[in-house]
Amino acid sequence: MTAIQSRRPPAHSRRSSGQPAARNRIWDAGPLTKVVLAFALVLSAFPIYYMFIMATRTNEEAIDVPPPLLPGGHLGENVSRLLSTEDAYFMTGLVNSAIVSVTVTLSVVLISTLAGFAFAKLRFRGAKILLGLILVTMMVPLQQMGVVPLYELMVTLGWTGQLKAVILPFLVNGFGVFMMTQYATQAVPDELVEAARVDGASTMRIYANVILPALRPGMAVLALLVFMQTWNEFMWPLIVLNPDNPVVQTSIAALNQAHGTDYVMLFTGTAASVLPLFIVFIAFGRQIVGGLMEGAVKA
């Protein structure tokens, strides 16, 4: 793989030449731009902040006028009530959503990168037709149109009420395949793949040593999007799962039906359902943004 390494500039030189300039361009924005962005940030963040504030209050405090804007001291009590309620099976919903979201995300990222590599860098008969069919699946709302036959299939297989009924239909994502195809086309030069072949690398070694390192920023973005979409999925789990084996979104719906006037319970459940998304973004957000900035500077 010496030819491959000789064609790659050092990682530190790529970062040092591009990222400081990008940061300087951001901070060179005018005062009006910064004020507008700060205002938009406050408008976007305040509902989330208020949701967490209400999760620390009591129902009497939640309906006070003016409403409280600082944390209270009842968070532990509210979380305990949420986890002990027998109407929503909230803890079961959190665990089920984590299992489903992680499984679907790993599958979509793996299959999308493999398919994207194949469509972008390998030559085989019918590639354009297959890619066109994938684009068609993105244009047609298959989940809404196919919910009846898909449910009949789950009944026939005896999978209703089981997590595999909400995992299997989403293991492949047309958008992910298309995104990775476009990303691989732009991020990996054909000369780099040809150099790897000249060095005697097999197709899978090219995928592992050449394609995957170049696709990491796109994979991180795709993983975050798929995880969020799967975590927030509501309609299909509501149809195919039982109330005693829910995902987190159907647990919140059950909370709304059983405790519609218990506002603190609803705020606490919603905050608990959003918290894993914050954790995922905090853990991987810097890598995602940094990878996108590096890719933008390269382009």
UniProtKB/TrEMBL annotation:
Subcellular location: Cell membrane
Membrane topology category: Multi-pass membrane protein
Stretches for region Disordered: 1-22
Entries under InterPro entries matching the protein: MetI-like, MetI-like_sf
Protein keywords: Cell membrane, Membrane, Transmembrane, Transmembrane helix, Transport
Chief localization: membrane
Family: Belongs to the binding-protein-dependent transport system permease family.
PANTHER family: ABC TRANSPORTER PERMEASE PROTEIN MG189-RELATED, ABC TRANSPORTER PERMEASE PROTEIN MG189-RELATED-RELATED
Protein name: Carbohydrate ABC transporter permease
Organism: Streptosporangium amethystogenes subsp. fukuiense
